[in-house]
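Consider the following assembly input.
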Amino acid sequence: MRDDVLIRVQSVSKKFCRDLKRSLWYGVRDTVNDLLGRDGSAQDLRRDEFWAVNDVSFEVRRGECLGLIGRNGAGKTTLLKMLNGLIKPERGRIEMRGQLGALIALGSGFNPILSGRENVYVNGAVLGMSKKKIDAKIDEIIDFAEIGEFIDAPVQSYSSGMQVRLGFAVATAMEPDVLLLDEVLAVGDTAFRIKCHRRISRIRRNAAVIFVSHDMPAVALISDRTLVLSQGEVHFEGDTSRGIEAYEALNEKTTYRPDKGFIRCHPPLRSFEIAPIPEELPFGTPVVVDMLIDSTTHLANVAFRVDVYNMAGIFIANGIAENPKGIGPGKTRSHIEIGPLPLKAGRYLLSFSIADAAGEFLGFSSKSHEIVITGGHPGTTTDCQLDVRTWTNVDEADSFRAAMLHQ
Amino acid sequence: MSDLPVTIYTPESPLRRPATLARQMLGDLVRSRELAWRLFVRDTSAQYRQSILGYIWIFIPPLVSSLPFIFLNTQGLVKINDTPIPYGAYAIIGTTIWQAFVDALNAPLRTVTLARPMLTRINLPREALLLSALAQVGLGFVVRLALLIIVLAWFHIIPPITAALFPLGITSLVLFGFLIGVLLTPLGLLYSDVQYAVPVATTFLMLLTPVLYPVPESGLAHTIAKLNPLTPLVVVTRDWLTIGNTTHTTGFIVVTVFATALLLVGWVIFRVAMPHLIARIGN
C-alpha cells in the first residue's frame, strides 16, 4: 500500500512564447487544433517559442515527498500547473491517482468584502469540499489559522499574515492523496511556519507530496528526494543533500562577485603575498595559509587576521593569530593553520591582513581568495554550522537519571 | 489502490475520445453545482454591499434605455404609434426583456474574467463559473419582474392567460444570449477587443431588433427584422405577457431549439479552450 505510485510523469514537455501577441495567437491556433481533433499543438518550436519544461520524468509514491527546486524560471510552477491539470502538456503523459490538493495560491477566491467565515465556505468549495465537510472542519480551521473572533469580520480588515493563515488552514483541511505545494511557506511568521511544517509532515504520511521552495533548509527538512530543474530540464534527481548542492552550484555559476579582490601593503612592508588555497574544502578539514612577507625592518608585535565573507558580501566570521617571534627583517614565510572551518556548504571569499601593535594595517589582501565548502548537513540555515559529528545510541538508558542527578 | 480515481493528462485532443469527454462534462456539471451556488451567493452578497442604491441598480439599465425613446415619442420627434399597448409600457417591457438577453450575453465573459486569478491557480470545475453566471442573470430578471408588474399596473394592462408562458420566452432569450456569451468567452479572455466591442455591438443590435418598435411592415427594416433571430424571441415574449396572440411562434421554436443545441457546442469549445487559455494568460 505504501509503495503505490500516485504521481507518474513521463517525458513531459511544455512550451511558452516570449512574444505576447504571438502567444495569444498560438493559443487560438492550439484551441482550434484541439477542436478539429488534431493532437496538441505543433511538436516543434514555432517562432519565439521555447521549452519551459522539457522531457521531465519522475514518480512519487504515497508517503514520499519530492523537493522540486531550481532557479527562478526553471519551470517549477509550469510543471505543477500541468500536474494540477490547469494546462496541457505538449508532449508526454501525466498520471495522478486519488484526490488532489494543491497549494499554489493560498486564499484564492477570497472576497475582501465578505467575512472570513463566508470566505472559508467559498474557498473550501473552490477546492472541492462539500458544505458538510466544511461544517465539520470549520472550528479546526479557525483554530489553526488563529483568527479567533475576527472570523466574522470582512477579510479586507485582515493582515496579510491572517489571510495566508486562513488560506493554508482551509487548503490543508481536505487531506488529499496528492499534495502540491508551491512556495507556500514563504509568508507567515516563524511560529506559523513551524505549525505549517508540522501539518505538512502529518499529511505527508498518507500522501504523495511535491514541495517547491527556494528555502533549502525547509526542503532538506521535508523532502526525501529532490528534483533540480534547470531551464526546464532535469538537472539532478536523487538524494536531497546532493540535490541541494547541485542547486547551490547552479546559483553560484551566475553569482556576481561583490568586489574585485586586491592586495595592498604599506611600509615597512615591501610585499605581502598569500599562496592560493585549495578551492574546494570538504566540511571539517583544516586550512593552512601559506604567507610570504618582505619587510624592511623587524616587526615584533604583528597580528594576522582572516575575514570570511559570503557571496552576498556579508561579513560572517573572522579569526586572529599573533606571532610571538615577530617577522623580518627581510623575507619571512609563515604557515598559519586554521582549524576546521565551521561554514555551511557554499562559496566564500577570504580576506587576510597584517596589522602592527597600534592596529594599523600593513598588508591587506582583500577577498582575493575564494573557497567552496562542501558537505555538512544541507538543512543548516546559518552561514555557520557546528561540527556535529556523531549520534550514537548507548545501552545504559537507566543510568540517565543518575547522570542527571550527578549534575 | 485500484479504487482511487486516476486522472491522466496528455497532449491528445479531448475530441479524440468523445465518450470520455461527455462523461467528464456531465461529471463536472454535477460536481460544480455546490461551488456554483457558493460563487453565486458570494458575488451577489458582495456586489451591492458597498453601494448605497444596492439592488436598485438592477432596474436602472432597462429604464434608462427606454426613457429617451418614450421622450422622443411623446414629443413627436420619433413616430411610433401602432403599438398594441401604450407606448410607454411597450418600450419599458421591451427593454426589460432585452436586458435579460444582454445580461446573459455579458455574464460568462465577465464571470470568467473576474475568476482569472482563481482559474490560473486552482483546478476547479469551470462549469461552476458558467452556472453561477447564469444564476446571476436569473436573479436580475426575477428582481426586474417587480418593475414589469408596476408597469402593467400603471398602464392598466391585464395580462392574458399566455402570460404563464412569459418565463419560457425569457428562458429562450437568456439561452440565446448565453450561447453568444459562452462562444465569445475564450476569445474574450485572450483579447480585450471583445470586451470593448460587446457594449457597442449590443446597443447597435437593440436598435436593429424590434425592442422599442413593432416589426416594420415593409422596407429594409422589415427584411432585417425578418432575418434577425432575435425578432421572434423578443416579439413572442412581449406578446405573451401583454396581448396573448402572437405571430412569430414558429420562428421562436426554431431559434430556441437551435440555441439549445448550439449551447452544447459552445460548452465543448469552452472546455477544450480553457487549458490553452490558462497557459496563455499566465498568472
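The two ends of chain A are 49 Å apart (CA to CA). Ask yourself how this observation constrains the way the partners meet.
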